[in-house]
User: Fold this.
Amino acid sequence: MAGRASVQGEKKGFALPQVPKIAVYIVGFIPAVWLFYAGIDDRLGADPMRYLEQALGLWALRFLIATLAITPLRQLFNINLLRYRRALGLLAFYYAALHLTTYLVLDQGLDLAAIVADIVKRPYITIGMATFVILIPLAVTSNNAAIRRMGGQAWAKLHRLVYVAAIGAALHFLLVVKSWPPEPLVYAAIVATLLGYRLVRPMVRKPSPRRRAA
Amino acid sequence: MLIRRPDDVLPSEITPREVYFNRRQWMAGAAGLALTASLPKGLEAAPLSGAKSPFSTDEKKTSREDVTSYNNYYEFGTGKEDPAAKAGSLKTAPWTVKVDGMVGKPAEFAIEDLIKSPALEERIYRMRCVEGWSMVIPWVGFPLADLIKRVEPLGSAKYIAFETAFRPDEMPGLDSIFPVLEWPYVEGLRLDEAMNPLTLLAVGLYGETLPNQNGAPIRLVVPWKYGFKGIKSITRISFVDKQPPTSWNKQAPSEYGFYANVNPNVDHPRWSQATERRIGEGGLFAKRRPTLMFNGYAEQVASLYTGMDLRKLY
Assistant:
């Protein structure tokens, strides 16, 4: 479907109706607001803390995946959503921060000894925490002033860390569950596909002048 | 040996199979219409009471709603809500439990006889899941030792192996393209563990027959072990001389041992077992509580493990 649309839109790219970026944030925060409300209203099932913690983490991963999907969508299907990438990336960071806060405060009750033991001893927590740490510089530099100060190339280089973060998030999800249930495998496959695309792209595509100029 | 229905029940008094299943369908529909959200699909609860037991804890019971809606039963999916939503398709009648292996009197018990014949007790037990949450559950059942005595195990029998029903048509999780475990689910106990008076075959919950998502029609409850030892919907019990394979141990031997005793001092490799969250206690802001050695049943069971290194034999 998207492919067909891209044929129509050729050169200029498929023209999507432009929505203000603030709308992305507003829609993006709906799950968080709903989850907190439902949690306080005791509507998250028998283990509300765990539900909230997992749901927030899942949304962080979803937004991370959304930011990674922007480039392939543009290059393969001529769908240009570049102007929303920063919002999606920041939403991923905000959800990761909420997920971490839930773990630290509601799950572990700020029991520092237990938290440190978790980080040191348990690979999935170590990976989760490292993933969050990686997201911090990306979030901090997600503004025009930072791009200007750093210079475009250095900024782009730094933001390639998002690939590492995506791998970390997918691994964190795979390692936290017992056995191999489908959901984390599906997310890991999506992340692998989006990152694999970036590996394969330079090998299969002749560099096109138009794209280079862009 | 087939343990038969009592002779005083005439064949004409037994509800024909078609009528029985039609009634189940009708009830499932009626339950939906009546918007009894707490009544899971397909559940046909019948009152089932048991005598009070001195083994019962007086801790606050987890609500029936939570006990029957938050379950691990991977035959019906890996989500906690899956069993309550999907286990209605499991046909728990007719049901027999085959007891074989190294016993003097192998038998096939009809579930009706198991529910009726021994004196049922209500046992309010703590239940600790390996995932770090816990509940307090009022089971109705009878000691496994009662059944063991009936079949007269041979001296060579050292362990008991359990097996769950394998019914892909009725258990959607078995058809998953990502098999989470090797089916059918199997579990095992050492014979002395099985004979411990705490070890229960549960046929009821909260004064009613067991809901499907909790392991109807009959399941094992070993309160000092992690919940996964409590195999659900048992179809076969075999007496053997070697330690039998167990499902989670086969899946990840470094994470789930054969013994699986609740032990706050031995972490699961991926999470601490020192504390637990009691379901239904404080909602979103529930505090963790310390996990007790042998889940608080050390007095009754610690002697089973004297001389064993529980760090190695976890």
